[in-house]
Design a protein that fits this description.
By secondary structure, the protein is mostly helical. It has helices at about 1-10, 25-50, 60-80, 85-105, 115-140. The longest helix is centred in the C-terminal third of the chain and has 28 residues, at about 115-140. About 30% of the residues are buried. The model has no long low-confidence stretch (mean pLDDT about 85).
Length: about 140
């Protein structure tokens, strides 16, 4: 009885006084990035066989493929996230960007700093849009 009385006398904090905490579900981020990578590799093979992607790597289809993969990665991460799908989507797209950047550097490309920063920004925005779309669809149901 004494313990219950002490708990009732504690000062209660208002919701605005609570510290901001963001919990990231890393499974959602990794699964989103891996899904985006697998889909982009499959589409790359299909588009390559169809002749829509050239050997020089400077085609519009390749750029659209990368953006679609980042959107898919963000969407999948947003669907598997418990809350804040836009954050999870952005992180998944950034993880996918780093994976594809590693492949590109291993293949011999030398991107400039401006290209890297711009691509990071675009990946974060597209992935966050995919995660927000997943949140929106979850709320609509």
């Amino acid at each position: 009885m004494e313990l219950a009385g002490r708990m009732d006398r504690r000062p209660r904090r208002a919701p605005a006084d609570r510290p901001l905490s963001v919990s990231v579900r890393w499974f959602a981020v990794v699964f989103g990035a891996v899904t985006g990578l697998a889909a982009s590799l499959a589409l790359f093979v299909v588009l390559g066989l169809a002749g829509l992607i050239e050997d020089d790597g400077e085609s519009v289809a390749l750029l659209l493929l990368i953006y679609a993969a980042q959107l898919l990665a963000g969407y999948v991460a947003g669907r598997y996230a418990v809350a804040n799908g836009a954050l999870h989507g952005g992180l998944a797209a950034l993880a996918l960007f780093f994976l594809t950047a590693l492949f590109a550097v291993a293949a011999g490309t030398e991107p400039t700093l401006v290209t890297i920063v711009f691509s990071l920004f675009v990946a974060a925005v597209i992935g966050s849009a995919g995660g927000a779309l997943a949140n929106w669809q979850r709320v609509e149901k």
